[in-house]
Amino acid sequence: MESMRPQTAVIYTRVSTERQVTNASLETQEKSCLIFCEQNGWEVLRIFREEGESAKTANRPKLIAALDYCCTLDPSPDYFVVYAVDRLARRIEDHLFIRARLKAKGTKLRSATQTLGEDSTQKYLETIIAAAAEFDNSLRAEKTVAGMKTRASEGQRVWKAPIGYRNALNGARQKTMVPDPERAPLVSMAFEMFSDGLHSKSEVLRKVTDLGLRSKTGRKLTLEDFKRMLANPSYKGIISVERWGIETKGNFPPLVSEEVFNRVQLILRAKRKATGERQLNHPDFPLRNFLKCGSCGKPLTASFSTGRSKRKYAYYHCQNRNCSAPANEPRSIIEDGFRLFLEKLRCKRELVDLFRRIVSDVWEEKKRLDAEEGAIYRRQLAELEHRKTKLFDAYSGGVLRIDEYKSMKEVIEQEIAIAQIRECNSSGEDADPSELLTFAESIFSDPANFWQTCPPDQKVRLQRFLFPEGVNYKDGYYRTDSTCLLFKLLQENEAREENLVALTGIEPVFRP
Fold it and tell me: pTM above the 0.85 mark?
């Protein structure tokens, strides 16, 4: 008679945190399971160790491998042994699914610390134990979230610090953040550069990347990383959690002023809007969706019409069916008329020269003030570095204990990081504004010609810049309530020089 096959088992152990991986938790589970199998006379075929994985989901690499092993082995193991039910799953539906999959292959679930079996009472108790594990997990999660909400409402940062900060504890042992001496100045520089509206996200990212800005793992930031950084209110010293309805001042120093941060958000929103507008624009019709019908106020659209000779004709027209007098004009008439309309914005040469001198003077004054501020902050940095050196000497000489040294050193390093940010903000770039001024002069001196020679996408941007409220068109007339601030100021200066009343808008011009 053939000898009876010994019963076999597979052991599965799990811990959910990296800290548990490094302590004896896995070894304790494994030892208990091995003793349990030995006491029952079961041969252990294999041990699966899950390190640092939560039981909130059954989608765990080692668990899947263990189940696949049981289901593919022929014959299947007799038992699947865990230390406790909550090591296997913390959701009752996952527990029942795993148990059913094992049962389909003839493998029974057992626990080294809890009584599991196959009769009705044991199955009932097993279900209660699995439900209790889920309840305990849910209760702890609710308590954790409640605690996080309380701390966040008090201004504490309860998540991993973003780039430019480091997690720390303040004097009251509360969670806070301190500026990262290496990254904080570069984050601040990125906000300052982007806030002037003269640099794209890609340009600013390239600049700070070249200067050494990296993620905390050392990799270069992607454009998506950078966009999220620019939109993070933590950098202006605010804790904001929309899903919890929390927005409060943080207990950590801001890396940028509220004014700079808000200006960056306006630019980001404007760029998103511009991206949507470009989809509505057409290279053959730069005034489409910009000119508004003078009768109904709706934006004009444009298209090509095919004549009897199969020739195509370009037209701008109002698409509002309820318009009392819809515009419908050939493209040549609309665009030639708009070019003549722009002629009225031409500024006198002497005013353009005055504008250049004023901007140059302001620029030089700003450079002088920045240089003075930079010198002050550099002196502060030198003093702080000296204090840091003296602190180390005191610790090395046995005057300070290690805990005192670390606490005082952290305070000085925080002050150094803040001084570095201020010094970086005050230094700016040693740029020459002459090229930008020359570009501005070409617009002020002859906006009609500048618009005429622009590529289609730049035409659209120039139109929005010159006429922020748009332009109305009706029966050959163009009218707007306002122009951009710079043109308005120059026009008012010109009117005062000629002893005329400054116009509130642009007078209508007839079609050519």
Answer: no
